[in-house]
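Please complete every field before forwarding. Incomplete forms are returned to the sender.

SECTION A: IDENTIFIERS
Entry label: holo-234
Bound molecule: fe (ii) ion
Molecule representation: SMILES string

SECTION B: INPUTS
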Amino acid sequence: MKNDNVLKDKSELYFPKAELKEWENGVRQYCTRRNDTEVLISYVPPGVVVDMHQHKEAQLGMVISGELMMRVGDVERILTPLDAAYIAPPNIPHGASNLSDKEVIAVDVKRYKTEENYTAPEDYFLEVFKKKDLLPGMEVTFFVEDWIEVMLADIPGNGGEMPEHRHRNEQIGICISGGYEMTIEEYTKTMEFGTTYFCEAKETHSAINNLDHNTRSINLFLPPRYNKKKQRKL
Ligand SMILES: [Fe+2]
Ligand SMILES: [Fe+2]
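SECTION C: PREDICTED COMPLEX
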């Protein structure tokens, strides 16, 4: 079935299969990648310290569940679910500790492109830029930095949808609750917790939630669609 293999490979470009990395300190990471961008979903057991380290890739991350003490450069802050994102620009040391008695789940994105300039807020933590209802029941929250935009989006159940469209921005997304059907070009995948999609510039995409409850995802846009200096209307 040669044809099926071709289809399967193309689909894995948009919806790469996660690779599991298990670290000695007990952290488990599900990693997906397309080109220069890697998405990591990390499970950090209670009491575990992720040592300070640095790399040439910029890293942005958020906590999905639990509470994580995050350190970037000499700034330390407790991150709670989806309240803020941290950015560790290239070669800036960063690390984390789970000081709680519950597992932490976090999403991190690592990326390096020579032509991009990886800025960060002065204290490395990115606050909510704005919140709004895109459609009734479709609440969205934006975090914006010069090179990246994070959009937390709910899609209502019973057929709520983001109609097919395309744009010049790269778009990457991670399902963090519920589930939905995501289509990129002609390939459809059922998104569930942790499933990640990668959509390059100009690739058509759409989403529909056929469940009877909301679904939530973290979506990244590179470059951002909004300029954080000029608070343009969305
Ligand atoms: Fe890192
Ligand atoms: Fe889009």
